[in-house]
Design a protein that fits this description.
Elements (H helix, E strand, L loop, with lengths): L7 E5 L4 H10 L6 E4 L10 H10 L4 E4 L13 H21 L3 E7 L22 H16 L4 E5 L2 E2 L6 H11 L2 E5 L3 E2 L2 E2 H16 L6 E4 L6 E2 H12 L4 E5 L19 H7 L6 H14 L1
Parallel strand pairs: 1-2, 1-3, 3-4, 4-5, 5-10, 6-9, 7-12
Antiparallel strand pairs: 8-11
Helix pairs in contact: 1-6, 2-3, 3-4, 5-7, 7-9
């Protein structure tokens, strides 16, 4: 009698914010075998290394958290951004198809241009206004062309207790400075990477039970805010005395343009998973509690 082996989940880019959250969450899933690889172990733009890794390891699911995420730097490193976010993703999707591995790939709200002021559906027109967004959109296209059963999760304004992000930057500035300026005319929905990790595991469990999912789906926490109001919420949670001044995007010059409105419509994933999505304020509080404890 052979003992049934549990599914193996490969997580690429495992040292990033989402990858680290999946690592933390994996302890709650002892029946799965997890393979966590970093940029150093398994750079996704090294196709021959990817091929040999998949040939040597039996993998059932691949969560691709690997990405080039330096939004402003991408403007001057277009080739590098496209190599990692687009070409490598296409190759990964192809390899996953060859080995019958279910690929879950993470994308971004930056594939939209930010000109439509209503929550954006997966089917809405895309039109990135920066190199990073363009490279991520190309990655989506190449992945779906190579492997139509790929699941692509578009998410927005990701933060975590791990890595570098807006929340951690604000925590530092709000304790060090007497006054800071924060943009008040860009709107979106913050996403706690721990919540996103949880949703990915829910998708995997449902697929294990025979449900089929594929294509593009949006996920972010519930609610809409601006960077300014996001900062104000952080300030109130840590009871900082720092003054926050609202400023328009025009006063804060960056190499890459940002969409002014990139709120994601999450009704599709809520229906897929019968999901009750936490509000961004509740999730922010959870993350800050963890950071304070550290």
């Amino acid at each position: 009698m052979f003992e049934q082996t549990s599914s193996t989940i490969l997580v690429t880019g495992a040292n990033g914010q989402l990858g680290r959250e999946v690592q933390t969450l994996s302890k709650q899933f002892p029946s799965y075998r997890f393979l966590f690889t970093s940029k150093a172990d398994l750079p996704i733009n090294d196709t021959s290394l990817l091929k040999s890794f998949f040939a040597k390891n039996h993998i059932d699911f691949c969560i691709n958290c690997a990405a080039y995420t330096a939004v402003d730097k991408a403007e001057s490193e277009r080739e590098k951004a496209f190599e990692i976010n687009a070409n490598a993703v296409g190759e990964l999707a192809k390899i996953c198809k060859e080995h019958q591995v279910k690929l879950i790939h993470i994308s971004t709200d930056y594939v939209y241009n930010g000109s439509v002021e209503r929550p954006l559906k997966e089917s809405d027109a895309v039109g990135p206004i920066n190199v990073y967004g363009a490279s991520k959109l190309k990655g989506e296209e190449l992945a779906l062309a190579a492997n139509p059963s790929t699941i692509i999760i578009r998410t927005s304004w990701v933060y975590s207790s791990f890595g570098n992000n807006f929340v951690k930057t604000m925590l530092r500035l709000l304790t060090e400075k007497e006054e800071i300026n924060v943009i008040n005319d860009q709107h979106g929905s913050p996403t706690y990477a721990a919540d996103l990790a949880d949703v990915i595991m829910k998708i995997i469990q449902k697929m294990e039970n025979g449900e089929t999912f594929s294509g593009i789906v949006n996920y972010s926490n519930n609610g809409v805010t601006s960077w300014y109001d996001f900062a104000r919420e952080i300030k109130s949670l840590i009871k900082s005395g720092c003054k926050i001044n609202p400023i328009p995007t025009s006063e804060y010059k960056t190499a890459a343009q940002r969409p002014l409105y990139s709120v994601l419509d999450t009704s599709k994933i809520r229906k897929w998973l019968q999901l009750d999505i936490p509000s961004w304020k509740d999730s922010l509080q959870k993350c800050i509690t963890i950071l304070k404890a550290e």
